[in-house]
Amino acid sequence: MFTAVYLANNINTDWRITFHYFNIAMAVMIATIFYQYLFTLINEVNDKREFLFILGIEFFLIILGLMLGYYVGIYFCIAAYIIGLILPIFLWEKFKSERVNFPHLVERVSLIVIIAFGEVIVNLANYFNSKTPLMYAAFLLLVLMFASYVLLSDKIINHHQISRGFVLMYSHIAIVISVLLMTVDTLYLNNKNVDHKFLYGLIIGTVALYYFSLIVNQVYSKKVCQFKKIEAITLLTIFIIGALILWLVKNSNFVGYDLLINMKSDLFLSFSNEKQKFFKLTLL
Q1: Rounded to the nearest 5°, which phi and psi values hold at 216?
Q2: Which UniProt keywords apply (predicted)?
């Protein structure tokens, strides 16, 4: 907690200054986690060695980057974070699925998403006034996105299963990124100087990333709620149609109409098939 507060108080718009504060904070957090695993007993169902290996490489590269300075060290620090993110995928067979408390994992990643949505609302709060009616439409869009998340990544997931949870963890990284990108999208709607091609391309990409990440989590769903091929094709078709319409009217001044089309696509993606499945599930 102290490290997080330290980092928050030292973030600067000049990355050359933030570079040291950020990586010092990350090094401290990684070292803390490393020592937690270091003093854990090793047994046949323990994946301690894999965690120590990954954390050790990441810590070493960050420290090396800090010692070399910004202009050279930044590449070592970037490599450290990429390795920390990707290396578990190559070592996934060495991780023990029985060591994962899957219900707890679902709860933790869900809380991160809730925090991300909360940050979005806080960032948009200053724009809710009579001069910016689009913000109300943007808020409705966020409500639909959150409702989609509750249905697809909370209600219909089988919480009581034995799994490493890799898909769940990595998909939630993309979900959080897309939620934060939606903040940028909605704020740019009020900026008349933003290129419409860039803005609507960003909106389409953000929505695509968000719903793709949700659909990927279907591997953890209860059997009665799993997607069929025809349902997946239907959702994809609806999204493509909505994206094409949004792109065709990108040069129009009716920005509210554009956003409404985008929200309509979200509505269909969120509830067209999953609503029926969810109601069916609640009756079982």
Answers
A1: -60, -35
A2: Membrane, Transmembrane, Transmembrane helix
Q: Are residues 130 and 223 in the same domain?
A: yes
Distances (CA, A) of 168 to 110, 159, 218: 10, 12, 10
Question: Does one domain contain both 59 and 122?
Answer: no
Model confidence at 221, pLDDT cuts 50, 70, 90, reads confident
Same domain, 105 and 82: no
- Residue 75: pLDDT band (50, 70, 90) is very high
Extract the tokens encoding 257.
């109409």
CA distance 271 to 259: 18
Q: Token pair 């509750």 is at which residue?
A: 150
Q: Which of 189-193, 199-203, 246-250 has the lowest mean pLDDT?
A: 246-250
Mean pLDDT, residues 200-213 taken together: 86
Tokens of 70: 């910004």
For residue 223, what are its two tokens?
């059997």
How confident is the model at residue 279, as a pLDDT? 47
Report CA Rg, the chain. 22
- Could you tell me if 144 and 226 lie in one domain? yes
Cβ proximity of 271 and 150 under 8 Å: no
Say how many domains are in the chain. Answer: 2
Range among 202-206, 223-227, 276-280 with highest mean pLDDT value: 202-206
- 279 phi, psi to nearest 5 deg: -65, -40
185 and 56, same structural domain?
no
Residues 137 and 225 in one domain: yes
Q: What phi-psi label fits residue 211: left (phi over 0), alpha (psi between -120 and 50 degrees) or beta? A: alpha
Share of the chain above pLDDT 90, in %: 19
Tell me the three state secondary structure of residue 221.
Answer: strand
Last residue of a domain, one of 94, 115, 150: 94
